Amino acid sequence: MSALTREDVTSMILSAKRQAGLTWEGIAEAIGMSPVWTHSAAMGMNAMPADKAEAITATLGLPQEAALILQESPTKIWSQTVPTDPCIYRLYEVVGVYGPTIKALIHEKFGDGIMSAIDFDMSVTRVENPKGDRVKIEMSGKYLSYNAW
Amino acid sequence: MSALTREDVTSMILSAKRQAGLTWEGIAEAIGMSPVWTHSAAMGMNAMPADKAEAITATLGLPQEAALILQESPTKIWSQTVPTDPCIYRLYEVVGVYGPTIKALIHEKFGDGIMSAIDFDMSVTRVENPKGDRVKIEMSGKYLSYNAW
Amino acid sequence: MSALTREDVTSMILSAKRQAGLTWEGIAEAIGMSPVWTHSAAMGMNAMPADKAEAITATLGLPQEAALILQESPTKIWSQTVPTDPCIYRLYEVVGVYGPTIKALIHEKFGDGIMSAIDFDMSVTRVENPKGDRVKIEMSGKYLSYNAW
Amino acid sequence: MSALTREDVTSMILSAKRQAGLTWEGIAEAIGMSPVWTHSAAMGMNAMPADKAEAITATLGLPQEAALILQESPTKIWSQTVPTDPCIYRLYEVVGVYGPTIKALIHEKFGDGIMSAIDFDMSVTRVENPKGDRVKIEMSGKYLSYNAW
Amino acid sequence: MSALTREDVTSMILSAKRQAGLTWEGIAEAIGMSPVWTHSAAMGMNAMPADKAEAITATLGLPQEAALILQESPTKIWSQTVPTDPCIYRLYEVVGVYGPTIKALIHEKFGDGIMSAIDFDMSVTRVENPKGDRVKIEMSGKYLSYNAW
Amino acid sequence: MSALTREDVTSMILSAKRQAGLTWEGIAEAIGMSPVWTHSAAMGMNAMPADKAEAITATLGLPQEAALILQESPTKIWSQTVPTDPCIYRLYEVVGVYGPTIKALIHEKFGDGIMSAIDFDMSVTRVENPKGDRVKIEMSGKYLSYNAW
Amino acid sequence: MSALTREDVTSMILSAKRQAGLTWEGIAEAIGMSPVWTHSAAMGMNAMPADKAEAITATLGLPQEAALILQESPTKIWSQTVPTDPCIYRLYEVVGVYGPTIKALIHEKFGDGIMSAIDFDMSVTRVENPKGDRVKIEMSGKYLSYNAW
Amino acid sequence: MSALTREDVTSMILSAKRQAGLTWEGIAEAIGMSPVWTHSAAMGMNAMPADKAEAITATLGLPQEAALILQESPTKIWSQTVPTDPCIYRLYEVVGVYGPTIKALIHEKFGDGIMSAIDFDMSVTRVENPKGDRVKIEMSGKYLSYNAW
Amino acid sequence: MSALTREDVTSMILSAKRQAGLTWEGIAEAIGMSPVWTHSAAMGMNAMPADKAEAITATLGLPQEAALILQESPTKIWSQTVPTDPCIYRLYEVVGVYGPTIKALIHEKFGDGIMSAIDFDMSVTRVENPKGDRVKIEMSGKYLSYNAW
Amino acid sequence: MSALTREDVTSMILSAKRQAGLTWEGIAEAIGMSPVWTHSAAMGMNAMPADKAEAITATLGLPQEAALILQESPTKIWSQTVPTDPCIYRLYEVVGVYGPTIKALIHEKFGDGIMSAIDFDMSVTRVENPKGDRVKIEMSGKYLSYNAW
């Protein structure tokens, strides 16, 4: 009755990665996807297509059942309404400070609508800078227009 | 005893913009700053250098006292812990879903630290796409390393 | 300095409707839109295209500035995380009880994705029934598939 | 002293379904009920009549005690006041944006009352559309009129 | 533009009652309804039928527009999730302590369903008792059975 | 070191009741108390006098230590500030909608004070009604007057 | 239509007290009540008997209507679930740290019941002490025993 | 790796007390401290001096390691912001209703400062009274004056 | 009836400071106190001794009544449980990250007790540093030992 | 599958420290770091450089895997938005009372920016004082200036 859970799969991935001395870049390359998507799917924040689920299972030596679980649509849950980790909080702060600005510029450039968080992709890169290197985050989401009917 | 408040200045800017038929792009160009920064400073989420405060005051025909207020360091307040506006909520959702991923990749690429939300800039652009145009948000923040002492 | 606000416009619409003895069905018909959309735009939960904003302004005898405000993209705010009004709470309860079921069936019928609340429309109708008439709510939203990249 | 709990039964159903490669449509058909009701009862959000509880137990090969538990009136609990899963959040957003509109139209069409969430049923269907298929949710609840006494 | 609001009407009723030295029992008798319903409708927690709205308007000398407002379906709002007033808190405590018990007994006596809070009435009476008089609250609500479909 | 806990006792009672096919009415009759009190004491929301604790222990075949635990004053905890179960929520809604009314009538009938939730009893009964049977809840609590000193 | 409110009365009392250079001890003595009760009634946390309401009105030179308002049963509201003022927070902390202890000792000394907060009185005194004077708070509330029925 | 925790020690104390039929008064007397302090230290809300930790360990027959743990400074945690147990809630209510009064009287009697909750002691006693015995709670805390610098 | 409030005084101080082009350092020097204490008392977070209240009133040209209000013990309120302003949030983050560490070191260095926030003072200084100047915050609070009784 | 977790490492450190009778000062000295940083890294609130992780592992006799875990960037979580432990709460209170003051002085001394909580260090020391020893907390964080772009 004790089937493998998604939490088990996440924990197996983290453990296999640590023991093999792998990086997310490396795992992503091995399965032919981006590091952002690969990490989020490994954490249970995205579902994997069958071939990617099998590729990561093979790469990390996970049991076959893991590949099935990685293909299921996860229920995405975060338990902290305001995240306490300083690295994640700074992103929350950006939404609080600049959210209304992003909204105003989307309306100015596109009309009455939003940026999709579903038809969406993102990258995180390191940009060299003599005053101190910078983190660059690029998000791209499809513009969705409100309906009038 | 009823001095001009920052809320008054924000409301004067919005009203002058509507009456003059201006855009944020246009106002930003007039004062020689980016649209993201210009809007956020106008909303009371950033302080303006003296010359920019005077430029926007002149551009929009605001009273002289407004230029002083725009130079003060604002207390940045947002009252909704979870924003309800769908356009802003999608950004909050991105932080919930991808926050741990951004954290993991920053640690992998830089070490133990964070992306600053203070030494920070951002742009919002429209990217044409045959399947539907896309919103592109680019954030850049200085990497800050944790201290050990 | 005291420009007309969106709250003023909402309150003018409600007052004009009461004095003229109109219904939402009637106002919707007058401007050629559905009652659901018409009410929500009047309440500041949707932006109106220019012609509809002018039509409702003319229908209800509102000042010209109201038509401009009705065309702006509103910031959608609800202040009660859990709504207390019994009529609205029942809808919240439906989301709590049946939300996971709707999610499971969307995944089963479409794949890993969601129903859009932006490319979305809805109707509310009365269905006669000998055991007591029933409220019928029909929602239709575009299916959006998660990206993998 | 360790009797079977309802959580055990839910987990057994999910596991048996996965192993047998069944769908909710298929299980629902096997027990002669709708997919929405079948899923929600399997998740502990509705009680099953005796014959349906026995039918699902037989279909999925569950122990006999499971059929008794499926007949008990469950305590319906959801732990996230605001659901974080994007697919369920969109429904919460619909209640926030359109809740007051649904209320206004119920009052206009019926009088002072509500739509029941108890004497209630719902369906979820896929509607083909050249611009992208759509999710259609139909809810039907008995109108209940407030008492005056 | 400053129409009479429901809050104005509530406040007029309270003021007229105080000045005339009336009781809720007295007002209820004057309009031929129960004290519980009369008070709750006066507070904006129930809508009045036209004849009762006119009766209370006449009884208390309110302006004619008040009678129209008293007939509208109010949006029922309470702002304290946990009420602080000791008299009301005790009722909240009763729900916390005895809520699961009431649920269990309803299921035992009726089946899987609830007591309606819409098709509902209530009385509050004083019962003499040599050890100290007692407050008696009687609630009666229609039993509603859950649907299976 | 693993003594029997109150949660264990509650769970033993529920299990014994299910296996023996008993009802709360039946258990209450067996120990000579009301069903409301019996259920609430079994759930850990009231302490039992020694003879009742022994009677229920004997009736259900519980271990002797259970009788001791049932006599201890429980710490009454409910974890949902706003209950989600629809059957219990309706009672919470009644407090929100009618709480101020009950308060006003207690003050009118008794003076400045409250209804005790400690020196308190309650019954739940089924009332036949041709339009649909009704749930009747009767609460009786001692009136307590505020002190002035 | 702008009747005197309880907030007005509270504010008049505070203003009259400041202007006359009075103390709460002094006002309490003038009306023949304790300082604790006098302050709390003046703040709208207790209702005054008619003679005390008239006495304080006379003492402070308030308008006659104030005496009527001071006799009404106030709705006791505090808006901070956790009080921030350090002087009041320390009391909240005492409840958090010692609440379970007080409960255990009440049960040990009296049985299953509580200390009433209604049939209740309190004093605050200064106790000289060579190591630093101490605040002494004495509370006295009637023991109320839980009912079994 | 499974060292004894403070929770284990608390649970051992409660169990030993129940089995030995002891009271808090009795345990307190055995170790030469007050019942309030003894109970709170046993619950992990105060640290014990070495001799008292050894005395209670000997009295109740606890393992030697328990005496070490009872001497550590505990992290004082309460998980319910608003306590639900009626006996503890009444104390919370007293803070809400009378907190501002206690603050005003401390300021009047001492100056600008607070009552310490650290240099603090308390007793709970039973006071006989023909109208019903009363619970008397006496708190004594050192007055601390705010600094100006 | 509209007496000067503390909020009025705070706002007058801010306005006078802006018009006179003063700094907090300057005002503090003028009244012979530290900048931290001076600012906090001006904001209503500390009470002023009579001579300091008169000094600041004279320095800034405030009305005489302001000096009286500045001497009253303020009720210290902050409305954001988690502060959103980035400058203040960083301090909150320090408490979250390092709070348990400060607690552990206080217990190691002093025993079972706390640092007083009442008998407390603080300074904020600028420290030159070739890698970027640093903010230095020094807090000093009296150690208070827990009582055992 | 049960790898060592960070919680295990924290608990091993606390246990080894207790058994060896060490202090945080002592452990810090042994690894050549400050006590504040050492404790916070041991608690999972900072990552250790490799040599320090190995040093503490050797000092306390932890398994080799612990050294790897101590080098990972932890997710910093605190579960109490408002800390209840009195020693930590006082720090939270300081942020509430003096946060706006610190902000004002940083702006006055540096310009529009903040004190970093990342490029940050802190010490806790005991200062002898005839009126009672004092806790001294010194924080030093790099000043970060807001960007304008």
Automatic annotation (TrEMBL), chains A, B, C, D, E, F, G, H, I, J:
Pfam families named in the record: Cyanate_lyase, CYNS_N
Molecular function via GO: cyanate hydratase activity
Enzyme Commission code(s) on record: 4.2.1.104
Enzyme class (EC, first level): lyase
Reactions catalysed according to its record: cyanate + hydrogencarbonate + 3 H(+) = NH4(+) + 2 CO2
Database matches in SUPFAM superfamilies: Cyanase C-terminal domain, lambda repressor-like DNA-binding domains
Domain Cyanate lyase C-terminal positions: 77-149
Catalytic site: 90, 93, 116
UniProt keyword annotations, A-Z: Lyase
InterPro entries referenced in this protein's UniProt entry, alphabetically: Cyanase, Cyanate_lyase_C, Cyanate_lyase_C_sf, CYNS_N, Lambda_DNA-bd_dom_sf
Role according to the record: Catalyzes the reaction of cyanate with bicarbonate to produce ammonia and carbon dioxide.
Classification via PANTHER family: CYANATE HYDRATASE (PTHR34186:SF2)
Family: Belongs to the cyanase family.
Descriptive protein name: Cyanate hydratase
Organism field: Roseibium sediminicola
Gene that this polypeptide is encoded by: cynS
